[in-house]
Write a structure and sequence with these properties.
Length: 120
């Protein structure tokens, strides 16, 4: 199964994603701080990153760019509670594979994670 980095400014949201995906056998590492998530990606690597677009210091799109510099092959799913066409386009243009809208739907998340991991 996959090694998944989750970055959300709300710990409960990151923990929920961790619980959902661990039940599917994935190894999940939740973060609420951008620097910690980027450092983890540099030091340990990840198959997939799930990033909230609204974070504390940077945007999820900025973190996406940082992760792609570290590992151009990392797959990324963006999360947002405030979906806009512009944000979706920008995320996809910068290398995100998928886009999920909050509140997170368990089945949708599991399905998108599976699809993104199968594309590798």
């Amino acid at each position: 199964m996959a090694k998944i980095l989750v970055l959300d400014d709300v710990l409960d949201a990151a923990t929920l994603i961790k619980r959902i995906l661990e039940r599917k056998g994935h190894e999940v590492f939740p973060f609420t701080e951008e620097e910690d998530a980027v450092r983890f990606a540099k030091e340990s690597g990840a198959d997939l990153a799930i990033l909230d677009i609204k974070l504390k210091k940077m945007s999820g799109v900025d973190v996406l760019e940082e992760l792609k510099k570290i590992d151009p092959d990392i797959r990324v799913i963006m999360l947002t509670g405030y979906p806009t066409i512009e944000t979706a386009r920008e995320s996809l243009k910068k290398g995100a594979a998928e886009y999920c809208v909050k509140p997170i739907d368990k089945d949708e998340l599991e399905e998108k994670v599976e699809q993104v991991l199968e594309r590798s």
